[in-house]
Amino acid sequence: MRLLLIFTLAFFGGYLFTESWATEPKPVSDIDALLKKIQHNTQAVGQATKQAHEVSEKLVEEKVAEKEHLKEAVAVAESKVEQMAVVNEMYAAKMISVGLDTTVVAIDYKGEIYDAFLNYVEEGGTEDFEYFRLYLWQPK
């Protein structure tokens, strides 16, 4: 009997406190819902913008490092070219001292074939003179 009485009092107490004291949620208006969506979207856009800035900064750092690497490679290549020029001058001096002529002879083209080649180049031809002379030109 006591157990039944305790159970009944607990049941009515729980019923009274949950039903009578419960507060109903405020009705949500459409404007509040839209404002929450806008706030959520703004936060998402802010995070995306932050990530985009981080990625772009990382890309800029990579490009700067690549540019520095290319500058170093160009400096190395220029030093190699300078060394090759010194070696070339040394060999030219040796060849001259031995009696070999190292000057470049300028070839002066004249004649009907060369005039035809110049016309060919003006019309958009891309082959060199020797190829034109041997394979393309046909005497009239």
Break the fold down into its secondary structure elements and pairings.
Layout: H1 2-20, H2 30-98, H3 112-122, H4 129-136
Describe this structure in words.
This protein has 140 residues and is mainly α. The protein is built from four helices and no strands. It is elongated and about 135 Å long. The model has no long low-confidence stretch (mean pLDDT 81).
Mean pLDDT: 81
Q: What's the total count of β strands?
A: 0
What portion of residues belong to β-strands? under 5%
Counted by DSSP, the helix tally is 4
Largest sheet: none
Structural class: mainly alpha
Order of helices and strands: HHHH
Measured as a percent range, the helix fraction is over 70%
What would you report as the Rg, rounded to the nearest angstrom? 45 Å
Distance between the termini: 134 Å
Shape by Cα distribution:
elongated
Q: Which parts are unreliable, with pLDDT below 50 for 5 consecutive residues or more?
A: none
Keywords, separated by commas or semicolons:
140 residues, mainly alpha, 4 helices, 76% helix, 0% strand
Summarize the structure.
Helices cover 76% and strands 0% of the residues.
